[in-house]
Structures are given as C-alpha cells and as structure tokens.
TrEMBL record:
Membrane topology listed for this record: Multi-pass membrane protein
Entry keyword annotation includes Transmembrane helix: yes
Gene Ontology biological process terms from the UniProt entry: regulation of intracellular pH; sodium ion import across plasma membrane
Keyword Cell inner membrane: no
One GO CC term, this protein: plasma membrane
Transmembrane segments: 32-50, 71-88, 100-123, 130-153, 173-191, 203-226, 246-271, 318-335, 356-380, 392-415
Record localization: Cell membrane
Family as reported in the entry's similarity comment: Belongs to the monovalent cation:proton antiporter 1 (CPA1) transporter (TC 2.A.36) family.
Keyword line: Antiport, Cell membrane, Ion transport, Membrane, Sodium, Sodium transport, Transmembrane, Transmembrane helix, Transport
Protein name: Sodium:proton antiporter
Domain Cation/H+ exchanger transmembrane: residue ranges: 15-416
InterPro entries for this protein: Cation/H_exchanger_CPA1, Cation/H_exchanger_TM
GO molecular function, one term: potassium:proton antiporter activity
Length: 446
C-alpha cells in the first residue's frame, strides 16, 4: 500500500472508534482512540502468539512506511500547534507570562537532570550498562509536556483560568528549550564533535528566538493578506498557508517551526480575528480549525496506539517501563514544586495548582517522535540484541500511554475540585470569558 492509502485507512479507523465512543462510551475522544488502537494492537499480538492469524509483521511494515517521526515533526505538527495557538487567550497569557516562562525553562531543565540521574542509578542497580548521557537524553525528550496531548485533553475540561493558562502556555512554549537540550545531548551521544557553550547559545538563539521572530513576521504577513480580502472563503483558506508553506519554510531556514506556528496562531487568533476577518469568517474560524484539529488528532493518537506493533519487547523492557512511569511523575512534581516556591512569594494560587500541573503534564506523540530519531545499533545488551534506541523507545512509550490513558482520563476529578475551591474563594469562572473577550477586542482594535 502507498502511504496515502495507509493514512486513509487509519483516518477511517480513527473516525470509526470516535463514532463508537460517541454512542456507547463516555471517554474523551483522543483517549478513546488511543485505547481502541492499543486493544487492536494487543489483539494482533495475542493472535499471532497463539497462531490464530499472523498480522503483526504486515501491520508493523505498513506503519513503518508512514515514518511516524516525519509524519508528526515535518507534517501535522504545524497544523496542530497553529490550531492550539488560535485558541490561546492573550490577556490570560500576559497575566501568566512569568509563570509560563519559568515553567517552560526552569521546570524542563530540572526535570531533565533529575530523570537523567535517577535513571542512571536505576540501570546501575539492575546491572545494565546504560551510559549517563543516554539517561540525560531520555530526560530531555520526556520532560517537555506535549502541547498536542495537553490541548487535546485538558483544554476541553474547562479548568480554572490560571491553571489552564499555565498548562497550555507551558506546553506550547517549552518545545524550543526542550529541543535545544535534546539536540545538544544528541550531538554529545552520537555526534563526532562535542558542542561548546557558544554553540549551545547559538543553537538556542537561532532555533528558539529565530522561530519566534519568524512566527511574528509570518503572522504579520497573513494578517495583512486577510485584511485585504472580502472573500469569506479566502479568509479561511489563507490561514491554511501558515501551517503548510509557512511551516515548511521554517525548516528550510533552520528556525523552530513549532514556535513559529504558536506565535502566528496567537496573532491570528487574538488580533486578526477581531479586525481582519469578516463577521461570517470570524464565526467560522474556530469551527473550521476545530474540525482540522479533531481529524489530525484522531490519526495521530491512533498511530500512538498502533506504534506498539513496531517495537520489539524483551523481559528487561517491562522492568524498565515500570520504572520510567513513576520516575517521570516524581520529576514532574519536584520541578513544579520548586517553581511554585518562587511563585507563591508574589501571588496566591488555587490550592490544586501543583497537583493539576503535575498530573496534567501529559506526554504524547512528540516524545515518541524524538525517541524514534535515536539511531539503532548502539548495543547495550548484545546477547539479547537490546540497543539504546529500544530502551529509550520502550520507556518513552510507557510514559506516553500512561499519560494519555490514565492521567488524561482521571484529571477531571482534580479539575472539579479546583473549580469548587475557586467558588469557595468567591471567584466566578463565567466572568472570565466575558472579560477576556472584551479585553481582546479592545486590544486588537488598538
């Protein structure tokens, strides 16, 4: 089958699972799709193990043709992050700018080194010679929260404003910093040259700052184009140019495409929305991009569930996977707790903030895509053909699946408790939306 044919069948499967869930299930759609894909994967594996029918090799070969890392990092990621940026409320972002900056930078760094150190100690304990640099590499790719997973699940639960803004803002902006750490450690682990401090700073400025500047210019260009057309359909079609040609061009000039999409999305969603679009297009903008977002998320989360078929599991892998989940959760809690030691000196927060940020720090396809970028062949246990890539992949996959299925499906109770706490504090959530919309329109017109 061609890649297009495979993606068509995957999209149909995702829509079928979503439809069944809407009729008989109560799960959030992306959680239901991931769970359905995992059940299907397990069914294929069990049937092959019992010689009922053999589909695992065919399914794995078909999925490998899609190239999950390229499909996400060089394809749909631009659409999903742009759609996420459109939904960000700029007044809320300004109110939480320092918290989001600290969470995106400091929390990611603390988590990376904590996970790296604990992982290295664990492997020493079980007798597997897993180098410290590989442990740090795993920490770097698993520490940033995944904006796709977060926005697909958490934002639909109507969490308290400040908590929601911190979760969404952190997940959208910590990619640039996390990528710098990952690429630096990747070069140390597998490259021929050791990066210098100047090289790291240059990479950060070129990737992260360059991506933000490019995203601003891209948003400015399309704001101008949208403002100078009266065609309702063209106004919406122009927004497609940002995550398509705009995202691809970012990779050509070597800047962060993900950050560019977030910045451009925030500009279009908070500026162009109110002074550039006609009334008809403004009403349709969110519906149009929600449809795109739902469709691509369905395919992505189905691929996450089916990715299990492409892995080779050994007995040691199950022990490693069982370790990775609590290690990442503890690292997340510690990094958030340290940040809040500073936050609490200047502002009062919802008493459930730390718990929600810890449990709501979801991981998703981005972590798996980065893990898949690790080259194969660096053997750790040669007699069992276990290499660095396999160990990092199985740890990452365990954390991602637990994050989506368990954390994503149980965070609702924490958010409900946080809402009750805010009502007890005399805060009415309904007033936020009115104030935000009014402020956005006034800011855009200025």
């Amino acid at each position: 089958m061609t890649v297009y044919t495979t993606l068509c069948f995957l999209a149909a499967a995702a829509m079928l699972i979503a439809f069944i869930n809407s009729k008989i299930g109560q799960m959030q759609t992306t959680i239901a799709i991931t769970a359905g894909a995992l059940i299907l994967s397990l069914g294929i594996v069990i049937s092959g193990h019992n010689n009922w029918f053999q589909l695992k090799d065919f399914a794995a070969e078909t999925l490998n043709e899609v190239h999950f890392d390229d499909f996400l990092l060089k394809g749909v990621l631009g659409f999903l992050l742009f759609a996420g940026g459109l939904g960000v409320k700029l007044p809320n972002l300004k109110d939480q700018k320092w918290e989001i900056t600290v969470l995106a930078l400091l929390a990611t760094l603390i988590s990376t080194f904590f996970i790296g150190g604990v992982t290295w100690l664990f492997f020493q304990l079980i007798g597997i010679p897993f180098a410290f640099i590989y442990c740090l590499l795993f920490g770097a790719l698993i520490s940033p929260t995944d904006p796709i997973a977060v926005l697909a699940i958490v934002k639909k639960l109507n969490a308290p404003r400040r908590i929601s803004t911190q979760i969404e803002g952190e997940s959208l902006f910590n990619d640039g910093f996390g990528l710098v750490i990952f690429m630096t450690l990747f070069t140390v682990a597998f490259g021929s040259e050791t990066p210098t401090a100047f090289g790291v700073v240059e990479l950060f400025l070129h990737e992260a700052i360059g991506g933000i500047v490019y995203g601003f210019l891209l948003g400015l260009l399309f704001h101008y184009l949208i403002c100078h057309t009266d065609d309702h359909s063209m106004e919406l079609l122009l927004t497609l140019g940002i995550p398509t040609a705009g995202y691809v061009f970012a990779s050509l000039i070597g800047v962060s495409g993900p950050l560019a999409m977030v910045v451009a999305g925030i500009m279009i969603g908070n500026w162009t929305r109110y002074i550039g679009f006609s009334k008809e297009s403004e009403d349709h903008l969110d519906h149009f991009w929600e449809l795109v977002d739902e469709f691509l998320n369905g395919v992505l989360f189905l691929l996450i569930g089916l990715s299990m078929l492409t892995f080779t599991f050994h007995k040691e892998d199950w022990i490693i996977m069982a370790f990775a989940i609590p290690a990442v959760l503890i690292a997340r809690y510690i990094s958030i707790r340290i940040c809040y030691l500073g936050f609490n000196r200047y502002r009062d927060y919802n008493p459930y903030s730390i718990r929600i940020l810890t449990w709501g720090g979801l991981r998703g396809g981005l972590a798996i895509a980065m893990a898949m970028a690790v080259p194969a062949g660096y053997m750790i246990v040669p007699e069992k053909n276990i290499d660095v890539r396999e160990i990092i992949l199985v740890m990452t996959y365990a954390v991602v699946v637990f994050s989506i299925l368990i954390q994503g499906s149980t965070i609702t109770k924490l958010i409900e408790k946080a809402k009750i706490a805010e009502r007890d504090m005399g805060i009415q959530p309904s007033t936020y939306k009115q104030a935000e919309t009014k402020t956005q329109r006034e800011t855009a017109k200025e």
